[in-house]
Every structure is written in structure tokens, then in C-alpha cells.
Write a structure and sequence with these properties.
With 171 residues, this protein is α+β, with helices and mostly antiparallel strands. Helices cover 39% and strands 21% of the residues. It is built from 8 helices and 10 strands. A hairpin with a 2-residue loop joins β8 and β9.
Length: 171
Amino acid sequence: MILQLCDESVEELGQAIRVEHLPELSDHDVTVAYLFAASSGNGQPALTHHGWPVLGLCKVNSYRERVQGLADVTIILDKEKWKHLEEEQRQALLHHELMHIELLTKDARVKYDRANRPAMKIRPHDIELGGFTAIALKYGHAAPEVTLCKKAVQLLMPWLDGASEIKSVKL
């Protein structure tokens, strides 16, 4: 993987999303570094998570890294894929990665670390889809993979099957 700093337009888009949709990150001066990743030319994707190709990754930097001057968070984007995304898709991807930043609180107040930086962790997805095609094909509606996919469709596309009360999807 080859890394480089993203251009200013990515930082500006990320800042606009933070201000409009995630003001708590701006209110507590969370710093974010944006990097592009390119494949090393070995036929492998630029970015993977648990072995699967992804468009972006979000990492909360350690206390030591932050003391050494790194940003609080690093977001890495697949440069080649980014080039082919439409503007709304870019916004959605950055918003998704920024959603992973969860400020830690105690008694409804944001906690700070010894470097006087906001304490945070990675917020997990509230939708996770995983399974095996072979199981879904063999067991059909009885397969947990199929049940999970049906719940995800109900949650994300309620117009297909009527409104849904599902708030998160995990099996």
C-alpha cells in the first residue's frame, strides 16, 4: 500500500460534513488526517478490512501518536475508487467514516485524555452483513444469512416491504 495526503478538497468536504452532521466532533476540536491509499501493484486492493476490499478506513490514533503530533483520527481512502465516485457518494463515504468516531463520555460530558485531547473510540457499524452463500443457497429462508439480509432490506429500504421498526441488524 502506498499512502499520500489527500488534497484540500477532501479535508474541506470532511469539515463540512462534521459541521452539518457531527457538530460534537467540531465542538471538541477532534482533528482528522485524510490519506489516500493506492495499491502496491501486486493485484491486491488498496484497502481491506477483515480480508474484504473497502473504500475507506477510520482509525483512532493512540495516545502516544497523538502526543507525537499526529491527528486524533486518521481516515484512509482508496484513491483509485475515490476518483470514480460521484460527489454524493464521496459525501456518503466520508460521512460513514466520520460516523465511526465516538467520543467517550462520563456523566454526559466528553472525557479527555492526559494530553487534554478528547477521548474516543471506533463506533461499530449498526448493520453488519455476513454469511456464506453456500448456506443461504442450501437452507433458503431458514439460513441466518437470508434472515439477516431480509432484516437489512427492511431497515434500509422500508418502501420495498412497508415500514420497519428495526433499529439495528446483527445476528
